[in-house]
Structure formats: structure tokens, C-alpha cells
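Lab notebook, design round three. We kept the backbone fixed and only want residue identities now. Task for the bench partner: fill in a sequence for the structure below.
Input C-alpha cells:
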């Protein structure tokens, strides 16, 4: 027998090492899955949690996965949902997959679980986005799961024909049903990965945070999680035919009418004709797709549900960023800002212009904050206040304001933290080698990641080495401010929020409802 060369020996031992690093397959309800070992974690990418929603399953509730006989290689992200741009893993109508980062060394560890729901305006993004990679959070002692869902018209098209073929006579919330299916999968299978199905918390940002809010109000999601984190989310505005940020929801009938008009204007006579098209050739939908109040997934105006105590009473951790309004095409001139406020707010425009004033020559942050609060600030404040009045679970409220102090004369003077900036802090994806990343940035990031994972562990963000975060209540409205350091403070712009609150209350009067039908 010939002696092996040094090169051959190296190759042999290298191959053995790679094989040894592969974790054993895990048995779940549908078959065996094989992940990868990565820096002390076991990672699974692309596990199906529902059948591909293609062909006749397009625009239907997600169906159960077909079991498999061989070992499923869960080693790469599945394609993201069909959308207007291409995610890192590509896109496909066959998109209902989830990913897991687990620090567990055995299946009996019963670790807490954080389930991520990405944003993207219910019209885009995917779990393969590098910003959502879960290794840093998992290394803090939780299992991180990210779930996909249908977006755009494939996820949210309402239409009379679709409602007629549904046993509940509803349509339009397929993306939310995907999330619920993913959470049911977690309940059935996460123990095999070392997780505790009794300690599941959901979290999301932007549309993902709005979805978290909706799941907290949906009877279909009852019992699927014990805690909820919403970053720049909430859905407490009243329905409106012509929607605006913060008033995004339509009633089912109005959404069906809009869907029927969309199909007709695209030159199609039926849903059956649309089902025959390739997903990427569907006619573009005018306006953004969004969930609807269908009486089933979303039973009613969420404000009314919370007033009546009809929601899933779980602990919540909710907040928003200081300059969200900078990210959504703010009016470029004072005149355009004033006109937009009058168009949307009618008889409340003058009071709101006083509370959110504009400069004579520019649209400053004080004016942009009306957009921030209508879409995020009022939603969060209202959610926290209503739940603290009608619920029993704890409420934790935050305000993210981490940014450089820009000098006077700088084009960014007066700017705050824009929409989605918080994601990199929570997932701890800041670049420590970047000279623009300050020591304070890294400290805030570690604090937020620790608060978030503590919340998953204990249903409370507090723990050793962190400033105490007291629960919020309408009688004791204390907010955690993430600005240079984590510290408590008052509700930001509370006086202005109360003026905006008067508008939203009016919108639920007969006069205000008529205004919303314009």
C-alpha cells in the first residue's frame, strides 16, 4: 500500500472535519431535516411550513406540507415571495419557508423562541435579507426563527369571487394566514430543535410590526405566542376607503370593490383567468396591497377590539423611531405640507399645523413628526394605553433616537433616527470597524438585543446589567429612550399626540366616518 502524500492526508482530515461538523438530522412532523453547524449554532434555512401556494392554491389559505421520505437538506434560503424587486435568494410564488438559528445542544433544552416577521409594506422583502440574519440574537440564548409570507396582490388581493369560494366568505388576508401557519408549525415542531413552544414571542418591524399588532388582535392566533414585540408598528387607525399612513385598512366590501376594479381594468374577466398566469406576469396592482378587516382574521376595527378587551392579552414591547417621517417622501415645500394636512385632516388641520408646525422656507422635523405620529407614534401610544387599561399583561414602551448630534449648518441638522434604523441595532449587525459607528451605538445595540432576548426568556425585558425598564401604564406613562444611553423618560410629544388623538376619535363619529368614505 502506497503512503499517502501530505497533501492527500490534509484533504482526508479536512473532509473528515467537515463531515464531523454536520449536525445530526432532526425529526419533525413532516420528515427529517439536515442543517449546518455555524459558530456554535445549528442553522436551518428553507424548511417548508406549508404547501407551495401555486396553481389552484393561489389566493387560498395555506395548506399542510406534504411529508417527505428522504432527509431534507435545509442549508440555503428559499426564494422570497413574488415582488417588484429581487431578494438575495431570488423570488418565487413557492415561498412559504422558514429558517432557524438554534444554540441548543440537544432537543430537551426548552429554550425560548423569537419569531421574526419582516417588513416591506406588505409588498416586499424576504427572510434572506442579510439584516435579518439571526446568529447574534441566538447567541444570547434564544432560538431565532424567521418566517416568510406572501406579499403584494398574491398575499392581500380581496375580490368577490375569492370571497365566494371561501368557506368563511372572506378574502384578502393570505399573508397573515401564512404567518399563522408558520406559528402553528413552530408550536408543533420547535421542541425538536431545543425550543419551548410555551415560550414563543413574535417580533417584527414596519409592516412586520403592524402584522404583530394584527396577530395580537386575531382570534386565529390565540395561544400561538406569549409575547409580542412591535418595532414601528401598530394598527389602531379606523378603516378608510382612500387610505393614508395610519389609516391603511379597508373594510372587506371596499377592498373587494377595489380588487374587482383592478382585475377589470387589467382586462381580465375572472379570477380563474388570473390563476392561469405566471405569478411574475400578473398585472401590477395600483396602490399598495394591505390586510383588510374581514371579520375573520381581523374581526373589526382594532381600536374597538382593544376598548372591549377582545384581543390576545400577551405581554408587549412596542416602540418607534424619532424621525420616521423622514423616510416616507415628506412634502418638499411648506405649501405642499399645509395642503396635504388639509386634504387628509379637514377640520382638524389647523390644530395639527399648530402642534406640528412648518417653517417658512423648509419642512423641518417638527412637521415631519406628524407623519411619524400618524403612522407609528399614535399607534404605539394608543396600543400601550388601551392595553394597560383593559389587559392584564405587562406593557413596555420605547422610543429609539440614536443618531449623531449633527452641528448647526449641517444638511442633517435636527435629523433624528429614520425608519428601519433600529433593525441593525436589534440584530447586532452594526459594523464595529466603521469609524462612524460610535461606542454609544454598540452599547445601545447590545442593550436592545439583551432587552429583546430577555423579553423572550422572561416575558419581561429586565435583567442584570441593564437599566431598569418599568412597565408602562396610562397612570404611569414611562418610556425607555434609546438615545446615547438607555434611560427612561416621558412619552415623546404627548401634547401633540393628544391633538392627533382628537382627530382619530372624531373619525369614529358619524361625521368622521362620512369623511373617511370620500
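Proposed sequence:
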Amino acid at each position: 500500500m502506497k503512503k499517502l502524500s501530505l497533501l492527500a492526508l490534509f484533504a482526508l482530515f479536512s473532509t473528515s472535519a467537515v463531515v464531523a461538523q454536520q449536525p445530526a438530522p432532526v425529526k419533525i412532523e413532516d420528515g427529517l431535516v439536515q442543517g449546518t453547524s455555524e459558530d456554535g449554532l445549528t442553522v436551518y434555512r428553507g424548511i417548508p411550513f406549508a404547501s407551495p401556494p401555486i396553481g389552484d392554491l393561489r389566493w387560498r389559505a395555506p395548506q399542510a406540507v406534504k411529508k417527505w421520505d428522504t432527509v431534507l437538506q435545509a442549508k440555503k434560503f428559499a426564494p422570497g415571495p413574488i415582488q417588484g424587486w429581487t431578494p438575495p435568494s431570488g423570488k418565487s410564488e413557492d415561498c412559504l419557508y422558514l429558517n432557524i438559528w438554534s444554540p441548543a445542544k440537544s432537543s430537551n433544552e426548552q429554550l425560548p423562541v423569537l419569531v421574526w416577521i419582516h417588513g416591506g409594506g406588505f409588498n416586499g422583502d424576504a427572510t434572506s435579507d442579510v439584516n435579518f440574519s439571526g446568529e447574534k440574537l441566538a447567541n444570547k440564548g434564544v432560538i431565532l426563527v424567521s418566517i416568510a409570507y406572501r406579499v403584494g396582490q398574491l398575499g392581500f388581493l380581496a375580490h368577490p369571487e375569492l370571497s365566494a369560494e371561501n368557506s368563511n366568505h372572506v378574502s384578502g388576508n393570505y399573508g397573515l394566514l401564512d404567518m399563522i401557519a408558520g406559528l402553528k408549525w413552530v408550536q408543533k415542531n420547535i421542541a425538536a430543535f431545543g425550543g419551548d413552544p410555551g415560550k414563543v414571542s413574535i417580533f417584527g418591524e414596519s409592516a412586520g410590526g403592524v402584522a404583530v399588532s394584527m396577530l395580537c388582535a386575531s382570534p386565529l392566533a390565540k395561544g400561538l405566542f406569549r409575547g409580542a414585540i412591535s418595532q414601528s408598528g401598530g394598527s389602531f387607525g379606523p378603516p378608510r376607503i382612500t387610505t393614508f399612513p395610519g389609516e391603511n385598512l379597508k373594510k372587506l366590501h371596499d377592498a373587494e370593490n377595489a380588487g374587482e376594479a383592478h382585475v377589470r381594468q387589467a382586462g381580465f374577466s375572472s379570477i380563474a383567468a388570473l390563476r392561469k398566469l405566471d405569478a411574475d406576469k400578473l398585472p401590477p396592482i395600483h396602490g399598495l396591497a394591505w390586510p383588510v378587516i374581514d371579520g375573520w382574521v381581523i374581526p373589526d376595527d382594532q381600536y374597538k377590539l382593544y376598548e372591549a378587551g377582545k384581543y390576545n392579552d400577551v405581554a408587549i414591547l412596542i416602540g418607534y423611531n424619532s424621525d420616521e417621517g423622514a423616510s416616507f417622501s415628506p412634502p418638499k415645500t411648506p405649501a405642499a405640507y399645509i395642503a396635504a394636512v388639509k386634504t387628509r385632516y379637514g377640520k382638524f388641520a389647523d390644530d395639527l399645523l399648530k402642534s406640528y408646525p412648518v417653517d417658512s422656507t423648509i419642512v423641518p422635523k417638527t412637521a415631519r413628526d406628524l407623519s411619524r405620529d400618524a403612522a407609528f407614534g399614535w399607534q404605539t401610544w394608543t396600543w400601550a394605553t388601551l392595553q394597560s387599561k383593559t389587559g392584564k399583561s405587562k406593557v413596555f414602551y420605547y422610543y429609539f433616537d440614536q443618531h449623531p448630534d449633527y452641528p448647526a449648518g449641517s444638511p442633517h441638522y435636527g435629523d433624528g433616527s429614520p425608519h428601519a434604523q433600529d433593525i441593525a441595532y436589534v440584530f447586532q449587525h452594526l459594523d464595529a470597524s466603521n469609524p462612524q459607528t460610535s461606542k454609544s451605538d454598540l452599547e445601545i445595540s447590545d442593550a436592545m438585543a439583551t432587552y429583546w432576548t430577555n423579553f423572550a426568556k422572561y416575558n419581561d425585558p429586565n435583567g442584570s446589567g441593564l437599566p431598569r425598564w418599568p412597565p408602562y401604564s396610562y397612570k404611569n406613562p414611562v418610556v425607555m429612550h434609546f438615545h446615547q444611553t438607555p434611560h427612561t423618560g416621558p412619552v415623546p410629544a404627548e401634547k401633540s399626540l393628544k391633538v392627533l388623538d382628537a382627530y382619530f376619535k372624531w373619525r369614529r363619529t358619524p361625521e368622521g366616518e362620512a369623511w373617511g368614505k370620500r
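Keep this in mind before ordering anything: DSSP finds 16 helices and 16 strands in the chain.
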